[in-house]
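Researcher: Going back to the complex we discussed earlier. I've cleaned up the inputs and rechecked each line, so this should be the final set. Can you rerun the prediction on the complete assembly and write out the structure?
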Amino acid sequence: MKLTKEFSKGLIKENPVFVMALGLCPTLAVTTSVQNAIGMGMAATFVLVFSNIFVSLVKNFIPEKIRIPSYIVIIASFVTIVDLTMNAFLPEIHKSLGLFIPLIVVNCIILGRAEAFASKNNTISSIFDGLGMGLGFTLALIVIGGIRELLGAGQFFGMNVMSAGYKPILIAILAPGAFLVMGLLMGLMNLTKRK
Amino acid sequence: MKYYLKLGFILLLIGAIASGVLALINSYTEPIIENNKLKTEEEARSLVLPQAEIFEKKSIAMERAESKPDPLKIQKETSGSNEFVFYIGKNNQQEIVGYTFVAKKYGYSSTIETMVGVNPDLSVNKIKIINQAETPGLGANCEEESFTSQFSQLTKAELQVDKDGGQIQSLTGATISSRAITNSIKEGLNNIETALNNQNKKEVAE
Amino acid sequence: MELIGRIFALAIATIFVHNFVLARFLGLCPYIGVSKKLDSALGMGMAVIFVMTLASTFTWLIQTFVLVPLGLEFLQTIAFILTIASLVQLVEMVIQKTAPALYKALGVYLPLITTNCAVLGVAILNINEELNFIGAILNGLFAGLGFTLVLVLMAGIRERLDKAEVPASMKGMPIAMIVAGSMALAFLGFSGLNI
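Model: Rerun complete. Updated structure for the full complex:
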């Protein structure tokens, strides 16, 4: 019961992007298509789950003073693993995510969960927490990526879904569109919460 | 003091373990990444020059590049950068059916690499963009067939974007990317022409 | 003379055309988080300029004289983030000892900079774009200036926004995003600059 709660809180109630506004850089930068959104979401989820596992395992051996640098090394190692394996097996997605794969290191969600959750809880709960937060992040990326791809390219997941006469609203896929879509979605979240 | 030594030691230990694991993974993925790159190039090569069965690698030393070196970028060793590599495509009767080369130029936000297939009369046969990270929605559309198909059968003199008075329609909002691709192909054709001329001269001299 | 022209071109490109926040989506967390007051935005901006320039310098040296000669490029992410983290720590200690007044102004922002992805971003971009030593230092400086410019502009707008009538559900983050989107739209105008 408790574990499902650890898992599900990240999806909606404490969604890292919409509710806590963490990890904004990759959220806005890579959501030009659903495919990129899924790639980024999965990469971050992998790092999140494994860094949570390792942090919760070694938390008792690491002195307070060097806590943060140690966590950063652990996170950076998993980021490099993701970077290398994606480059080897998913070169297309790796290329379009580019700089934002190494930048997962400084994604506040990951260090934030290591610090706020994994360093205080046991390994099993940490896994579920990481999974929930990671999937919540992925979900948010897919929603934003879906809207931007649909409006800006008339496609969904690379398939044409709009009628032939649809003229894409190019701005949605460009930089300003990222901010506008994000702002409107956050406003919408607030509106539904108030009711 | 002793306490700080211990802290340093623990950090060092974590770092060492991490580096070890990463070295292991790197040694596994590095050849795959290398291989992928070669495979993409090979596939692109047969795509832009389908009539060729065998490709023969040629590299020639070029005269100094026309563009001045950028004072803010790393200057490559002079031996490597003045080399131009291209492939001669032959059919199974050993006749030359064309050439391929990779055209490279910095576009708007990335170096765009284009695989170019060239007919024996030095007009473009077909091109394929093999590497780019231009703006999604604008420059990134250069991979689309509607853009790349414009290049087919054009000769060196015809390679110019519309903004410069040519007939290649630039991508919407991405003149810089379009121009980079067009000009890089043009430079490559120039290089092949020089290379072939030099070769002919040499043969006559012999 | 040619060098000066190139430096000018790099400045325009990094500050306006490829602005770190509005075109590259780097450093969004402080951009949204520390832009409520004008003077704190200025303080943060100064600290970022300082750290970005230093980080560009040191990471370039580490990449060129340690990682590449030893064939350890795959350790780039770990090495860079640790360099930045220690650099920030060092700067904090030095400023605290030598210039207490400056420390009072910048102190609170310094720890936040470690996880500012614009700093790690500029370090990696310097290497990806094959800049030389001088190019890397200047790129760090200009990237910081570009960041500070839009941060201060944003703070100026948000101070006035406080007095504006904003729909309740759009207050705070959502309207900040919309403002950022409008700014990105304006900066899109620079992308036609051919330099």
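Model: Worth noting: The radius of gyration of chain C is 18 Å.
Researcher: Good, that matches what I expected from the previous run.
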